[in-house]
Amino acid sequence: MSKRTATIGIIMLMLLFVFSGCSKAGKYDDFSKEDQALSWQAERKQTFGNSDYSKIATEKEAFQLVEEKYKLHIPAYYEETKKLIADEIPSDTVKPGETVYAVFARNKELNFQTRYTFYKEEELQIVSEVTLNYEYSETNSLAYLRSQTISIKIAPVNGVLPNDNLPDLVEKMGKNMNIPAEKIKSGLAGYEKQVRESTSPITEEFLPIVTNQESIDKKNAFNKLIAVSYDTNGTVRELYAEISE
Questions:
Q1: DSSP E strand boundaries for 22-120
Q2: Which of 32, 95, 97, 214 is least surrounded by Cβ atoms within 10 Å, i.e. has the fewest?
Q3: DSSP string covering 151-214, please?
Q4: How do residues 8-44 score in pLDDT, each as one tens digit?
C-alpha cells in the first residue's frame, strides 16, 4: 500500500468517526447550558410501537410507563410547570379538580399528556394540558424530546383567569423556559400596549406575546413561544407556551 493510499484511508476513517458521532450524541452540544437543561436524548434501537394509555389515574403510574416501559426521561421543566399551575391557577373560589394522565405511542412518536382541571363549585373554569412530545430517529438510533407545550384554556362561562394574573403567568412561564427577562418584559409591554390601544375587540386566534423565533440560530437554541388566543367576542380563551426544535 502506498503512503498516499494509507493517508487517504486514515482521513476517511477519521471523517467516518466524526460524522457518526455527530449523528448520535451531541445533538444539543452547541446549545447554552440553560437550554441543554431543557433537552433530553438517548440511544434507542426501536420505535415506540402503537399504544393508547388514556385516563391513567396517578402520576406514579404514568411515570413508570414513560420511564420504565419506554425508557424515556421526564425533564425538570415538567415539575416546574406542575408547580406553576398549582401555585398560579387556583384561587379562593376556584379549586383543583381531577388530574388525568395519558400516553399515546404512534410508531416514531410518543406523547405524554397531563390534564389538570379547576372548578368553581361544580362549574368547570380552567383546563390545563402539559404535553411532552418524544420522537425516535431510526437513522440516528436516537430518541429525543422534541417539544414541550403548556395550554391553559379558560372555560366559556368565564372570561378571565381565576386570579386575573395573565402577565404574572407569562413572566413565570418565560423564566421557566429560560427566556431572557428583558425579552419577556418587552413582549408583555408590546402586548399590553396593543390591548390598550385597540379600538375594536381583539379576535386573533393566535397572538404571540413573547417569542425568540426571529432572533435565534436553530442550530444552537430552541424555539420558544408564549401566545394567547381570543374568541370572536374579544375574550381571552387560552394561554399557550411551547419549547420546540
A1: 41-43, 49-56, 95-107, 109-120
A2: 214
A3: EEEEPTT-SS-TT--HHHHHHHHHHHTT--HHHHHHHHHHHHHHHHH-SS----S-EEEEE-TT
A4: 444 344 433 333 333 345 678 888 788 888 889 999 9
Among 32-36, 62-66, 182-186, where is mean pLDDT lowest? 32-36
Q: Are strands 95-107 and 109-120 parallel, antiparallel or unpaired?
A: antiparallel
What separation in angstroms does the CA of 213 have from each of 33, 62, 225, 242? 19, 32, 8, 11
Burial class (CB in 10 A: 0-12, 13-18, 19+), 155: middle
* Amino acid in position 112: F
DSSP state of 61: H
pLDDT at 122: 92
141: left (phi over 0), alpha (psi -120 to 50) or beta: left
Chain centroid to Cα 45, Å, comes to 25
Contact present, 118 and 95 (Cβ < 8 Å):
yes
